[in-house]
């Protein structure tokens, strides 16, 4: 279970901090520390379930170093992502120097996948790729943020 693994790792980190005599709050609440009540309310309004695991996942979507790859066999996150990362949610999101204003749905099985990927990179559109079991390695440099801008283009 993902939540059990996260809790176990967090407890190990706290043990390491204790043994190295670093000062910290033992009662630290990860979710409250890493997100605001307004963010959590907005996430719930956008269709995210109200459980701890989903809330932590939403926090990771906000604090990523690389573009996230979300594996969601249940399809539960699609509605949330579409609402959260579109201007329909009432605001634009600044991520990695580009402003995402819409969500483009595509699939690795879609004949125009590469065109959709290129367009998303060029114009800063959020790209939601379905059917990841047919994963295309062309996405690796994008997920690792190993793409370069040349003359204003990616």
From TrEMBL:
The cross-references to InterPro entries, in alphabetical order and at most eight, read: AAA_9, DHC, P-loop_NTPase
- Residue span(s) of domain Dynein heavy chain ATP-binding dynein motor region: 42-152
Organism superkingdom = Eukaryota
- Name a single GO cellular component: cytoplasmic microtubule
Identify a single GO molecular function assigned to this protein: dynein light intermediate chain binding
Q: Which GO terms describe its biological process?
A: cytoplasmic microtubule organization; mitotic spindle organization; nuclear migration; retrograde axonal transport
Descriptive protein name: Putative dynein heavy chain
Q: Species lineage, top-down?
A: Eukaryota, Metazoa, Ecdysozoa, Nematoda, Chromadorea
């Amino acid at each position: 279970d993902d939540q059990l693994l996260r809790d176990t790792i967090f407890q190990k980190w706290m043990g390491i901090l204790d043994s190295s005599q670093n000062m910290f709050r033992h009662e630290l609440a990860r979710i409250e520390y890493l997100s605001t009540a307004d963010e959590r309310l907005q996430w719930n309004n956008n269709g995210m379930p109200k459980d701890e695991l989903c809330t932590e996942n939403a926090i990771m979507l906000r604090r990523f170093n690389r573009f996230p790859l979300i594996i969601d066999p249940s399809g539960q996150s699609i509605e949330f992502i579409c609402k959260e990362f579109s201007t329909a949610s009432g605001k634009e999101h600044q991520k990695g120097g580009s402003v995402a204003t819409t969500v483009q749905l595509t699939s690795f099985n879609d004949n125009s996948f590469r065109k959709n990927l290129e367009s998303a990179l060029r114009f800063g559109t959020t790209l939601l790729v379905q059917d990841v079991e047919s994963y295309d390695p062309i996405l690796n440099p994008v997920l690792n943020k190993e793409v370069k801008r040349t003359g204003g283009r990616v």
